[in-house]
């Protein structure tokens, strides 16, 4: 699993050679941002899940800044933000609104349906969605924070558990191969 992930990660030379990233190369080339172990992977996934609910195109930038701050795996964090995309953002925001309304104790259903794409071009639709989100106010904002924290916590625990499960299976496999090899002699 780890070797497969490393094949897709950019190396230090590609970052240093990129003219857009060159001014930030001292920060971006910190070894802990690229090291792949269970702590950096879990932190990167958790940070990516949290930043994935940030509105607008700032998800990857926020994830990168968080990685620099917390020294967790940068590529995993940036890629993980992609779970919120044009297909999933509306259901995620509807869920966030519901969570926020429940936390605030709102009883009435003040939810307004999101705009449909219909005959609108993409730019007009995005503007309509932005206006729709602003109109939802406090329940949405609080719900996004709570939902992001829940996703982040579940992602962190999930990666730690999956990594531990894989490690234990690997140990048991080695032990079985060793004990099988001793019996043949």
TrEMBL record:
Protein's UniProt keywords contain Transmembrane: yes
Keyword Transmembrane helix found: yes
Segments crossing the lipid bilayer: 86-105, 140-159
DUF2062 domain location: 21-171
Keywords from the named record: Membrane, Transmembrane, Transmembrane helix
Name of protein: DUF2062 domain-containing protein
UniProt organism field: Aromatoleum diolicum
């Amino acid at each position: 699993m780890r070797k497969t992930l490393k094949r897709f990660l950019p190396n230090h030379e590609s970052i240093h050679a990129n003219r857009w990233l060159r001014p930030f190369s001292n920060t971006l080339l910190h070894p802990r941002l690229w090291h792949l172990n269970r702590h950096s992977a879990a932190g990167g996934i958790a940070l990516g899940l949290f930043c994935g609910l940030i509105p607008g195109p700032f998800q990857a930038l926020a994830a990168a800044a968080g990685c620099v701050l917390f020294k967790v795996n940068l590529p995993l964090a940036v890629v993980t933000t992609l779970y919120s995309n044009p297909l999933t953002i509306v259901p995620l925001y509807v869920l966030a609104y519901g969570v926020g309304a429940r936390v605030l104790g709102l009883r009435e259903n003040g939810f307004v349906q999101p705009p449909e794409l219909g005959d609108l071009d993409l730019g007009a639709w995005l503007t309509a969605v932005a206006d729709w989100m602003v109109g939802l106010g406090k329940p949405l904002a609080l719900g996004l924070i709570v939902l992001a924290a829940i996703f982040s916590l579940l992602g962190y625990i999930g990666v730690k558990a999956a990594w531990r499960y894989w490690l234990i299976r690997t140990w048991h496999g080695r032990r079985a191969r060793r004990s099988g090899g001793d019996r043949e002699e």
